[in-house]
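Because discrete structure vocabularies remain unfamiliar, we first show an illustrative case, written as a sequence plus integers encoding its fold.
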Amino acid sequence: DILAEQRNAGVFELLPEVQSVFVYDRPKDLATVLLRRYDVVIDTEQWHRLSAVVCRLIRSKVKIGFASNSRARLFTHPVDYDLDRYEVQSFLDLLGPLGVSDVVPESPVTLVIPAEAKLQADKLLKPAGEKPLLVLFAGASIPEKRWAGENFRTLIDWGLAEGLAVVMVGGDADAATNAAIVEDRAVIDLSGKTSLAETAAVLARASCVVSGDSGVLHLAAGLGRPTVALFGPSNARKWAPRGSSHIVVNTAPSCSPCSKFGYTPSCGENFRCLADLTPDMVCQAVARLLSADTNWKS
């Protein structure tokens, strides 16, 4: 069983190993979980205490979670947490108290996209024809992680000139920003038009996905698609997808990364870590990933 937030619960529907998904900000779902009895409860939150309290309240003999602050007192098996450790490995560390220690961090995740979502994606992507897809996500959880709109416009113009079909994805909150970026360009703008499963189906068809540090980035990586990750205040060593099909573009000034436990401090240099990240750097990274694609005219 998975107990998640409303904003990210949908991704667990794509995991066949998950039996049930409950949303803790839905009172009925939370009550259902609290009334059940489990053998083991694992809390994957890194800092905030609320989930640790919920973990304590759920009936189970074994309670595992990160010992990143006073929340450690609420677990039967607190686990050390390192801000510089690859986050996938940090999550795997939570299996240590259960005697599991041989899982490879780069092991592929099997996400299953519903057939109806694939069909809808096919309809939405029909204008692309047989062209390779360059999928862009310009959104971010906070403004400090957002690459400038004019940079995305330059990237779009480059992609179109290279014979790629460019697709913008995002939710309702991204629609206005994406529209301002796209203007009158021949881009397939799907912001606010797809469910999470349909977005996954679109990403699954991408030849390359460009995104900042976001859920879309990790969803694309989980689907096995090549990614170009735009990192500024976040710690790329900890959060960026790893492997030969993933490229991190990061100017890495001495003050970066500055974001810790979801908090990004104010910046006296206007977040130059992202401001100095040029479209040419990103275009070159995309070209590298696409170089093995025989359908792409380099």
In short: The chain is about 30% helix and 15% strand.
